[in-house]
Structure formats: structure tokens, C-alpha cells
Amino acid sequence: MRKRFLQQRRGRGMLPSPLLCVLFLFLFTMSFLHFQTFAADPGAGKECKWYTVQVGDNLNHIVQQSGVSLADIAQANYLLNMNLILYGQRLCLPQTIQEAGILEDGSVRWYAYTALESSSKTQVEDMLRQYANDYGLPADLVLAIAWQESGWKQHVIAKDGGIGVMQLMPYTAKALNSTISTRRDPYKLEDNIRLGTYYLYKLWERYDGDLDKVVSAYNEGSWNLDHYGIFNHTYVKSVKALMEKYE
């Protein structure tokens, strides 16, 4: 009787075999993901920007948010099944190793294509709205200026040297940097939008919110506006039309 009782107690203390299998699978998966974190290969001339998979994530969402192609993510992380990513998994998002767009003396480089960041339109729109709100500017104005200038693209440089999303000129970026505590690199997406929105804010203050003058000055410069008035009427008209679209 005592022997049977001890056997029953031992039986109750043991995990059923299906639970053992689940536990083993979980530990194996975690060790596999841990290995993957260190096994990623971003490719020649690139580095990893690490992203931790969140609840509800899928690769299409990560591609849209990061601007990195599905093929590049799959190749860098050795993903055999692109429909299978797990919560907590760390993914390498390959990024081109970039040079700085600002020199030690504060000068901003001209036509520094290797310093440009890539971006997605979702990233750009979110940042434009964020900094419009931070500076108390109408979001439709900031969105319209940015679209008119670059089509919301950071990886472009205009023939005249304008950089990225809001097409800051190197000398304009240098002048703006001299008025703030932290230097911002216009070749980097967020710095570019932050500087461009700050510039728009200063023009908004200078011209007391006169929309035509603010828009004109962003394009032709405040010195030209003050001395010659508005002469870029087509630009102003185009921006105001875009503002109606983003209301």
C-alpha cells in the first residue's frame, strides 16, 4: 500500500510528456534566436541596425517602417521562411555605412551622396507631423513644403546642392546649426526634417504667419523676399494647392 502511494506521488510530480516536448521546443527556439542575433550578415559596406520583433509584427510591416527591402532582411538574417518571425526575435536591418555630412568646423559638405540616409514615406510623414506639432506649425504647411521640395525623399540631392527631404542648402544648414546647441546633420533624415521645420518656424515668426511670405522665403530666401518681394509665385501657388490636399 505504501509503495503504491509513493508511486502515485511520484507520478503526480512528473510533467506529462507533451509539456516536456513544448518546453524543449521553446528552449530550442530561444537558443536558435539567440544564435541568429549574432549570425546575421548585413553584407559588404553595410552594418546592422537591430530591430526587436514586437507583438503583431510581420516582415511586410517592418519593411514599410524601415525602408529596407524584404530580400535584404531575409538574406542578412538567413530567413528560410519569410512568414515566420517570432516575438522577441532580433533582426538585422542592413544599413549602408555612412559618412558624416558635417565637418569638424561645422561646415556642411556639398554633394555628399555617401552620407545620405534612405527613408520610407511613412517614416518621413510621421516625422514631419511630429516636428510640425513640436514647433506649433500647421502640419499641412510642413507636409506641403516637404513634398514640393523633395517628394518626401531623403536620398536625393538637387543640382543646386539642396539636401534631402526639405532640401536644405549646406550654408543654410550651417547657419541654422550656429543658433542651436546640438549640431544637426542634414544628410540624416531626422536631423534634416528637424532643421527644415525649425527654419520654417523662424520664418513663420519673422513674417507673423503671413503664409505667402513664409512659403516664398523658404524657397527664395528671406533676404531676396525683403529686397525684391515675392517673385516665385508659381512655387507659392503649388505649395498652397498641396496644403489643401493635406488638410
Structural features, described:
It contains eleven helices and two strands; from the N terminus they run H-H-E-H-H-E-H-H-H-H-H-H-H. It is mainly alpha-helical and 247 residues long. The chain folds into two domains: 2-96, Membrane-bound Lytic Murein Transglycosylase D, Chain A (Roll), CATH 3.10.350; 113-245, Orthogonal Bundle (Lysozyme). A two-stranded antiparallel ribbon has the order 1-2. The protein is elongated, with a radius of gyration of 26 Å. The N and C termini lie far apart (83 Å). Residues 49-93 form the LysM domain. Pfam families: LysM, SLT. This is Lytic transglycosylase catalytic.
Question: How many beta-strand elements?
Answer: 2
Would you tell me the structural class of the helices and strands? Answer: mainly alpha
Quick one: overall form? elongated
Average of the residue pLDDT scores: 84
CATH topology heading of the largest domain: Lysozyme
Taking Cα atoms only, what radius of gyration do you get, to the nearest Å?
26 Å
